[in-house]
Structures are given as structure tokens and as C-alpha cells.
Amino acid sequence: MQVNPSSPKPSLSVIAQDMREVDQVIAHRLDSGVPLVGQVARYIIAAGGKRLRPALLLLICGALGFKGAQRFNLAAVVEFIHTSTLLHDDVVDDSSLRRGNPTANETFGNPASVLVGDFLYSRCFQMMVDAQNMRIMQVLADATNVIAEGEVQQLMNMHNAELDEAGYLQVIRSKTAKLFEASARVGAILAGSSPELEEICAEYGQALGTAFQVIDDVLDYTGEAAVMGKNLGDDLREGKTTLPLIAAMQRGTASQSALIKEAIETGGVAMLDQVIDIVKTTGALDVAHLAATQEAQRAIAAARQLPAGPHTECLLQLAAQLLERQS
User: Fold this and answer.
1) What is this structure's pTM?
2) With the CA atoms of 171, 327, 209 and 71 taken in that order, what torsion angle do they form, in degrees rounded to the nearest 10?
């Protein structure tokens, strides 16, 4: 099965009805006797987003022939896990804009965002029990723990200009790629797959998630705020040492490297235009795109080992088209 990066964008219509079922589960499970809980949670979920993690779980189930209703429940679980991390992240990062809208913490305040994030985490574990599958509970519980560790590691790395590519990849594979990996793995477990096939699905998810985050970090220096739905230069303001900056410091002159180092250590958005110019002129974006391409190719190689069909074709296209992502 060949995939052409210039071929039409992947159609998620193959799981459109499944996603509607997931939306119904989400709406039902957001019910709470405390009005503010539902209000905050619905605010961030209604703001949109790509819903890639639940879509990934559904696509893996479809590729492997699993049609049980539990896929809707667990797809909602991974979306809730993701949403809870967004609520907490925006508080930690003091973000004011997400998906083109004011963040929940900007609208409702930090305390409400943190506590509703906690509610969603605990709701997830209630929903996991419904699956009556200890293996699935283990995968999702472990993933949630790894994500939390990744967030703490990223916090420790804030304003650390000495972070290298290996350290950067370790963080994004924990805080971002781990939930992609878990979503794909859960789909394989639901389908009763062999350990070997489960690992293939997990590798696809990890590679896709890693490529997704690398491109996200590139867009912070090349995208447009109106398209991305967040403020350009947020990573620099927060002191995040991402791959474009790491590569620029390695490839730039001593003065260019010193300027980027100072910007990271001080959160110097006043230097943003200079930093963007250095990132572009040193070829740092090529380094980051190459890293993302290698991860996308790893995802494609894994997907090619799945049974042929429309769900697998969509998985292949998701990986191939990721490199053209603009938001």
C-alpha cells in the first residue's frame, strides 16, 4: 500500500458515526451535580480540537475489525485524559489563548481549571472500570502517570538552554506521544490482538504523536496565530527549549546561539523576531522537519503491517499528511 504525501487529505468520514457516538458518551459523562464542573469541561471540549486521540483508537478498532460499543467509552476516556491535561497545562503555562478562544483559566480562573481537570481525571478512572479489562486499565493508568511525569520534567526544563535533542524527545514522548500510543494500544487490546500486533499499533501511535509534537513546536516559529489558535512565540515566553531552538543553537554563530540562549533563559519574547530569523536562516527548521519526517515514516511502516482497508488507509494518510499541518 503506497502513500503519497501529496495525495488527498485523510477522510475521517469512515469513523464519522463512531465519533458522534463518542460525543454522546462525552456529553453524558460530563453530567455533574456541581454546575461549574460541567460548565468548564464543556467550554474546553466545545472549543474544538482535532480529536486525534479518540479518532486513533476508533481507527485501530476499525482496522482490526472490532465493533463493540466499548470503543466509544474508551475513546471518550482518552479525550477526557487529554482535556484534563490541557486544563492543567494552561494554568502552569499561564496561557491565555487556545484553539482561537480564551483558555478556561482565562475565563473561569485557575482554581476552577485545576479542580475541573481533577474531576475529568477521576471520571476517566470511573469509565475505565466499565471496560472490565485489567489490561486496558493498566495501559491507561500507566499512560496517565507517564504524562504527569513528562509534564513535571518539562517544568524542570523550563528556561534550560542546555537541553539537548535526546532530552527534548524524552519529554515529548512522555507528555504528548504517550497518549497517542495508549490510544492505539487500547484499540488493539479491544480487538483481541496478538502481543506482536499490539506493539505494532502502539509504535504507530507513539511515532504519530512524536511527529505531531515536533511539528507543533515548529509552528510556534513559522505559523500564524489566527490559524493556529494560539499566540505565536508562546513556547519562547514559557522558556521551552524545543527542537527548532536546539538546532538553531547548534548550527548558528556564537552570537546567534548566545541570543537564543538568553531568550530561553529570560522568556524574552521581545527577541522573538530575531529568534525566528535565526531559526530560519540556520536551517534549524530543516532539522526539525527531518525529525518529524522520520517519525511519520516510522508510523507509516507500522500501519502498513495492519490489514488493508479504509481504516488502515486513513491511518496511513494521517501520518503522511501530518507534515503539511498548519495548525
Assistant:
1) 0.91
2) 130
For the chain, the straight-line distance linking the first and the last C-alpha, in angstroms and rounded, comes to 28
For residues 190 and 318, what is the distance between their CA atoms, to the nearest angstrom? 22
- Angle at CA of residue 312, ends 308 and 316, nearest 5°: 120
Domain 12-208+297-324: state its class: mainly alpha
Give per-residue pLDDT as tens, 52-82.
Answer: 999 999 999 999 999 999 999 999 999 999 9
Mean pLDDT of 200-228: 87
- Using the predicted structure, report yes or no on whether residue 225 has a pLDDT greater than 80: no
What value does the CA radius of gyration of the chain take, rounded to a whole number of Å? 20
Q: Would you put residue 292 in left (φ > 0), alpha (ψ -120 to 50) or beta?
A: alpha
Q: Specify whether the CB–CB gap between 211 and 243 falls below 8 A.
A: no
DSSP string spanning 64-124? TT---THHHHHHHHHHHHHHHHHHHHHHHHT--EETTEE-HHHHH-HHHHHHHHHHHHHHH
Alpha carbons 172 and 178: distance in angstroms, whole number: 8
